[in-house]
Design goal:
By secondary structure, the protein is of the alpha+beta class. It contains nine helices and 15 strands. Helix 4 packs across helix 5 (about 190-210). It starts with 15 loop residues before the first strand and ends in a 13-residue tail after the last helix.
């Protein structure tokens, strides 16, 4: 299941529009967890590029400096069809950061915005989140007030923290391929990618089941909830936590199934166990394919959402949407709330 069947704003009409008509229409900027100190054995480069995904650029940087790809660090993965700005680290003891930056500009044809040094390698998850600046082209004539209403609702109430379509592969079948690996286990990054898609598909099924029960973002007894500052805890009394849920201070978490995943108790545990069993998978199976698992925040509030009317080719118009998301959340999921097909405009009455 690559896309949820429900919206967080079903009563608010969408604005339509074309997404990613050009890479510059989808800008993503990493919000780093820390900045390089200026000293250490790793060169840090802040790079802006388009039409290259993160893994491709990681490999190009490794080849350019004779490194293994594992010696080129990064904090997160960015789309190919976007204008992306993010930090990379290169394990280079002696090369001056500015010389390194010049080589990258000249030979790889990307912008290097900053260059420095730091003591440790940059690793996945070493970021506070991402800032997105989106241009939707040819939107509905009433896009501005509609988008403003949706933005206000998402900031106040939030939406399901689903995975974007890109998680499931170009043909949308990575989850199915991941399920097949339980019968014929494999190793390597491609196998990990497919297994993570399988995890994501089951997480979406869990979201659907919770939504059908009216338990999103509400808590159930036995849930593992997550505080806005990160720690997770078991919910003993959902009624006692209701105000914190309403304030966005805590959210339920859902299963990314694995043999080390923290388990719920009570009604929540029964729902999660039944979902896994419905797919014919056991905890032993998860261990056999070396899938550790985790818990994922099930609900998301959109911070700092800004809506701007932009000039477009007449008679249509464009709209700008800017917002920040925590690590692991998808801008395309947020944009789905804005773009949902708008109802047709009322026909112009015929002249009497």
């Amino acid at each position: 299941m690559s896309e949820l069947s429900f919206h967080a704003t079903p009563d608010l009409p969408g604005i339509g529009g074309t997404l990613k008509a050009a890479p510059e229409d989808f800008c993503v900027e990493e919000l780093p967890a820390y900045l390089p100190s200026g000293a250490g054995e790793h060169v840090y480069l802040r790079i802006r590029r388009a039409r290259r995904n993160t893994r491709d650029l990681q490999n190009e940087l490794a080849r350019l400096f004779g490194l293994r790809p594992a010696n080129v660090g990064l904090a997160g993965l960015k789309d190919k069809q976007a204008l992306s700005t993010q930090w990379f680290s290169l394990h280079l003891h002696a090369l001056d950061p500015q010389v390194c930056a010049a080589r990258v500009r000249d030979e790889l044809g990307v912008e290097v915005l900053e260059a420095s040094r730091h003591a440790n390698k940059l690793r996945l998850g070493h970021l506070r989140g991402n800032r997105f600046t989106i241009r939707l082209r040819d939107v509905h004539a009433e896009a501005l007030p509609r988008a403003q209403a949706i933005a206000a609702r998402l900031q106040q109430h939030g939406l399901a923290n689903a995975f974007g379509e890109q998680r499931f592969g170009r043909d949308g079948d990575n989850a199915l391929r991941g399920r097949e690996l339980f019968e014929k286990p494999a190793r390597g990054w491609l196998a990990e990618l497919k297994l993570s898609a399988w995890q994501s598909a089951l997480f979406h099924e869990w979201l659907e089941q919770r939504h059908a029960r009216g338990a999103l973002p509400a808590l159930l007894e036995g849930d593992i909830a997550e505080r806005s500052d990160g720690p997770q805890f078991e919910v003993e009394d959902p009624a006692r936590e209701r105000l914190r849920v309403q304030a966005g201070e805590i959210v339920p978490t859902g299963p990314l199934y694995g043999y080390r995943m923290r388990e719920c108790t009570g009604p929540s545990a029964a729902l999660e166990a039944a979902l896994l069993a419905s797919h014919g998978i056991t905890t032993d199976d998860l261990a056999r394919v070396q899938l550790p698992g985790a818990r994922r925040a099930a609900w998301l509030r959109v911070a700092e959402c800004e809506i701007t009317a932009l000039d477009g080719a007449a008679p249509a118009s464009d709209l700008g949407i800017a917002f920040a998301l925590p690590p692991g959340s998808y801008a395309t999921v947020v944009l789905r709330e804005f773009r949902k097909p708008p109802p047709p405009s009322a026909p112009t009455p015929a002249a009497p």
